[in-house]
Specification:
It is a single chain. The chain has ten helices and six strands. The chain is α/β, with parallel strands linked by helices. The protein folds into two domains: 136 residues, Rossmann fold, CATH 3.40.50; 79 residues, Orthogonal Bundle (DNA polymerase, domain 1). It has a six-stranded parallel β-sheet. The longest helix has 19 residues. Bound molecules: magnesium ion.
Length: 226
Amino acid sequence: MRYKTVLFDGDNTLFDFDAAEAKAICRTMADRGLEPTPERAALYARINRALWDALYRGEVTRDFLVVERFRRLGAALGWSGDPAAWNRAYEAALGDCGDLIPGALAVLERLRPHCVIGLVTNGLKATQRRRLGNSSLTPYLDGVFISQELGVNKPEAAFFQTAMAALGADPAATVVVGDDLLSDIQGAVNAGLDSIWYAPKGGSSPLPTYQVRALEEIPALVLGEN
Ligand SMILES: [Mg+2]
């Protein structure tokens, strides 16, 4: 038994966020009379990603980010409505999509008898709570930690320390699992924790303790069976 507590990231680690985001952006574009094309969905994803990266660097606030992404998208598409209203509609649509990454549930089922499991996410409170309710994850989670509720974001060490304190976790027996080097893996490093980088597309980084391409590889690492 290598780890007793596992802190899973949500988006694109357990939740199929890319699929949910594409659905929600296309639906809200159509509602605004904008033709929902894959190119436009990809444009939104790039704008959103750049703003989240700026948030992780401490350059913008969350409140600014959520409206600014739709102001920029609207400007690029020649649309001049209210970006704050678009954001509210988008977050509601996103909350309806509880799609999971294939294999996520099987991993949690395998770990459940042996580990304390927490969800650690930088997503927005209302969206994440609603998506959790629309997914089948809840029975597997001992705690849900959302940055907007904690008042601190990944990758700050305080975020992970708060989650571990709530779960009664021993840092030496805790591992962070996530797809994002900037928030999840750097966060684990900041908090002095081991990490598993879920990188389905591959890549290389000196930061994580372990790296996997498939979620199915995670239980053996956590349980020390390899
Ligand atoms: Mg993620």
